Sequence to fold (580 residues):
Amino acid sequence: MELITTPDELRAAIAELAAETFIGFDTETTGLDPHRSQLRLLQFASRNQSYILDLFHFPPDALQPVLDLLAASQPIKVAHNAKFDAEFLRKHHGIRLGMVFDTYLASLLISAGNESDRHGLEPVAARYLNVEMDKSFQVSDWSGQLTESQLEYAARDAQILLPLREKLQEKLDELELMQVAKLEFDCVNAMAGMELAGIYLDADCWRAQVAQTKAAYDQAAAKLQKELSAGAPQMSLFEEATSSINLDSPTQIREALGRLGIKVESTSEWRLHNLAREHPVIALLLDYRGLSKSLSAYGLSLLDHINPVTGRIHASFRQIGSPTGRMGCTSPSLHQIPHEKHYRQCFRAPAGRKLVVADFSQIEMRILAEMSNDEALLAAFNSGEDLHRATAANMLNVPLEEVTTEQRSKAKGLNYGIIYGMGAEGLANRISVSTTEAEGLIQRYFAAYPGVARWLQNAADTAVRERRSRTMLGRLWAFSFDPTDRQQLGALKRVGKNAPIQGTGSDLFKRAVKAVDDRLQGQDAQIVHCIHDEIVVECDEVIAEKIARLVSSTMIKAGKEFLPRIPVEVDAKVTDAWLK
DNA sequence: TAGAATCGCCAC
DNA sequence: AAACGTGGCGATTCTA
Fold:
């Protein structure tokens, strides 16, 4: 291990590192938030030497060679969760990390959805190299005088990455995951940029929204409490004041309903929904639940996530958030903000700026058409007609213009349900028809789209036979369902149908995210949010229309790579707030 | 009593 | 007494 303390030593180290194909790269920082913490150490490893650069004791104006090395596409930087390091480099030194091999993402891909595998550097090194690493220094104080053992720890982290990459590369090749790995590695910079930028939330707007909800909630709670207590035994005023029903407790609600003569097995929404018309108290309960959810999940606590330095919300994105490759988002989960206007209008563009909200239209149905090669479905998309209307026409063998609103709505339910492996009962529930009618509809659907029927059957069979599935780019999900268990077999078939579609959607979307992020370089525009098939960009208002066209065309081009036989449509809007 | 498990519900 | 997929999160209830 060599501690670099002078520009001369740095030049020599860079010369050696630059000659490599791969170098290990890691950083130590004084904290986890790039906006509030400092970069302390940069650690590099070549095949035979490791270097540490202490940024607290090195002239800042002599750093350029190392920044150039990091920004260059060669050598490839091997890092564990490179997004983290990339954010600090972008924030404090204004550079984008060049080509990376991310051992964290590689490990996730190789695990193929196995939830028991952990993916920190320590467990990954243990799993693939049989090396025991002591990570206890990770949380040590990296802001003061560093001890020799801290430096050794730091160097070791970078050193292990090269042998780890070799092993992971072997596995990726073996499992034919290199294409999807490349896709993921290429997406790291876009993810880093998005997290670092964050999204602006108008706090006053949000507070007003919460206050309004709170008032409605109080009213609904009081009314519901009164109605539910009607069946309770007579109580003194004191008892009434102290022993009220906990409206958030399914158990207590069930008991209270029972006293009113309404017997229910469970108080879940789908079960209560049909009873709401018959019993006003149930409608009241559902109303209360909506407001309660709104206050707890989308209440003032969201404001706690506003970063004091930037004034914006920097959610944590997980690039591979599920076995299908969809991203995950936490702290807060910006993926589950309701789309009612009073919530989303608070996510805004600051003064002088605009948001471009762009999403792929019906992308999973298009993927189904492409993968299944179903002639009628392909034709439906290529005709440019409304998909659900065309589906209804195909199912009922009637001309397009004769399709009624109700028929279209049922066809829509089928189109969405089918990609989740839905059965007759599920469909019946969803579009409010009898199970018999639902069975008939599904039969008609498969008669209209026989290629889809064949593809779905094959996907389910393959899932049961091989207990795994792949996307167009080869992303793998090894299922842990037990096919001898009846229920799990059902789930296995449904996931077998859905995973290739949803997963290919992820592949396609990530290609788009990377491409859009690349195209926005050098412009006053930045991706600030991603939700499965939607990209939100914040930019200077003067260039917003141009950016919208750029984002849209870039997304379509990325989509076309996956869907050569189907038109790809993107709805892109320039707005002041996160609204469509 | 703290953490795990479950319920219920938001997104795509 | 559900079973159309993927997730996260807050409140309640269970468990040791």
Observations:
- Residues 2-175 of chain A form a domain with the Nucleotidyltransferase; domain 5 fold (CATH 3.30.420.10).
- The two ends of chain A are 55 Å apart (CA to CA).
- The longest helix of chain A spans residues 486-519.
- Chain A has four domains: 2-175, 203-301, 313-366+467-580, 375-448.
